[in-house]
Amino acid sequence: MKILKLFSLAVGLTLASAALAAELEMEKDKYVWVGIDTVSQMDAALILAYSKDDFNGTGRNLLFADTHVEFVKAGDIPKVVDACNAKREALNLPRITVPATNKPAA
Q: Residue 65, class by beta-carbon neighbours within 10 Å (0-12 exposed, 13-18 middle, 19+ buried)?
């Protein structure tokens, strides 16, 4: 019975991840998907996607692996990305980058 529950959970997570990926595909002009390799992880620190819109340089919406979306101020984005990359390194995944704003680097 325990194996059946685990299998059901795995199937549910896979279907939810596929649905999320499909929804993001429809919105690809608004979001950048950076966490396709983490869809099986439900960690609140792992970033899956970020908004292309930087809201006039004030910050971005970030989608996390536990499915919550959070507006993060531009000045806080490096700290959030560092936490995400620490988790990714622990999972042997490559680092990601999320630009704080759309302004070209000086």
A: buried
